[in-house]
Structures are given as structure tokens and as C-alpha cells.
């Protein structure tokens, strides 16, 4: 798989701090209402510090997307290529996907929401490569799931439909978490594990043949 990574820098820590602060604001306020000033304020820094690493809000937004997708790919790919039956691998992949959503919600929610239309229209061709990179990462990620689903379908484990047709509702069930889930102050790690287990089980039941459930 050809991997597309965010633009490398000498020290990743400052950029990582910026994109995490920005992701929280993009999640809470949306892209349009988030400003460089607000990102800097969230960090407790000056906007000059932000501009040292990024030339525009759009660059930060795209970097949030790329880093979120790359984190998913780096974790899921070894599972997809590893041992076990298609059912076992798909269940582990789904569980890992949900775990990342739960523990990295701002970054992943921005990524799941996708490229907002007004961002694309306002940036024009200046960020064509970044947008293509994001689309490529999304396609690569979904393809890993489709390959495992296709293998399971051919073995008679999953519903007999094209893998792409099955992957869409499968991801829909998992990613809906970014719509309804809100972290609670007293939430424990056991609570998160229960959410992940129940959501993964729900998604798997929707893709398994009735006799396999």
C-alpha cells in the first residue's frame, strides 16, 4: 500500500499540538467558525506560533484529516494482513477502529465528517495535492476492509453481496459513534470498552450470514 503522510517537519510535537487544538475547535465550532486566533488561544500561544508551522487554516484542516487517517491505517493494516479467519480479522479491525474513535474523538470526528464543501471551494487548486492525498488514504483504508470482507464472503461467512456494498453500512454503524458519543467526566476505561464491544458486535451482526451469528 502506498502511504501518504502529512508533511514532515523537524520536530513533530509543535505541529501535533496545533492540529489537536484545531481538531477540538473544528469539532465544536465547525471549520468556518474556527480561526487561527481561536486555535492559538486554545493552545495558550500566539497566532505567530501557529503561522510558524502553517500558512493557513485550510492547511491545518487538511493536516488533521491526513494525520487522523494515517493513524487508523497504521493500526489497522497489521491486523488486516495478519493471521486469523476473515471474521476474526474483521472483528479485530472494527474494534480497533472504534477504540481510536473513542480515544481520539476530535481528530477522528473531523476526519469522518470528511472534506467540507466550502473548504474545497474556498481553497481552490492551492491544496489539490492535499485533497488527493486524503481521498487516497480513505480509499486505501476502506480497501483493507473490503479485501477481508470479500475473503469472508467467498468463504460463506459474510452476506453474499459485493464488498463495497457491505463496507458502507459497516462503516456507517461504526462511524455513527462520532454523532452520538460525548465523553463524560466520570467515564471509566471499562465504560469505553463496553461501548466498543457493543458497537463492534452490532456492526458484525449486520454483515454475518444468519447461521454465523
Automatic annotation (TrEMBL):
Pfam families noted in UniProt: TetR_C_24, TetR_N
Ranges for domain HTH tetR-type: 12-72
Gene3D superfamilies reported for this sequence: Homeodomain-like, Tetracycline Repressor, domain 2
Alphabetical UniProt keywords: DNA-binding
Superkingdom of origin: Bacteria
GO molecular function, one term: transcription cis-regulatory region binding
Record-annotated DNA-binding residue ranges: 35-54
Protein name: TetR family transcriptional regulator
Species classification: Bacteria, Pseudomonadati, Pseudomonadota, Alphaproteobacteria, Rhodobacterales
